[in-house]
Amino acid sequence: MIDGKTNRVIDDIKLGRGITLITVNPLTNKIYTVDSINSTISVIDGKTDKVSGRNATSGNVIGVNTYRDIIYVSSDKYPSVTMLNGTTDKVLAGCSL
After folding, report:
1. What is the residue extent of each domain of the chain?
2. Hey, how many other C-beta atoms are within 10 angstroms of the C-beta on 86?
3. Cβ-based neighbours of 75, under 8 Å, separated by 6 or more
């Protein structure tokens, strides 16, 4: 983690070796990372700087709907989208395209 005021590293968070995507929900202060090697999405609580959830799915595009608090991840292997509930950090649903 980097302190936004000083630009100094203040903490390390162990996530994985294949982090390819990162997105933030500024309303909930959660950070979502996609690890393409381990096929996981990790959720970091920005208040505690700790991993608050991990889900077995991977993707090549990630987006956040801040109004509905849903995270969308397009699959990097199949024509599908996985949706995460931003409140529970769990998979809400998946849909094939």
Report:
1. 19-96
2. 21
3. 57, 58, 59, 60, 81, 82
Phi/psi for 67 (5° steps) reads -70, -45
pTM exceeds 0.85: no
CATH class of the structural domain 19-96: mainly beta
How many residues does the structure list for the chain?
Answer: 97
**Strand 40-45 vs strand 90-96: parallel, antiparallel, or unpaired?**
unpaired
Among 88, 87, 56, CA closest to 73:
56
Edge-first strand order for the sheet with 30-35 is: 19-25, 30-35, 40-45, 50-55
Q: How would you write the pLDDT of the chain (97 residues) with one tens digit per residue?
A: 788 899 999 888 888 788 888 889 999 999 999 888 888 888 999 888 898 888 877 677 888 999 999 999 887 677 788 888 999 988 887 777 7
The answer to whether residues 59 and 44 touch, using CB atoms and an 8 Å cutoff, is no
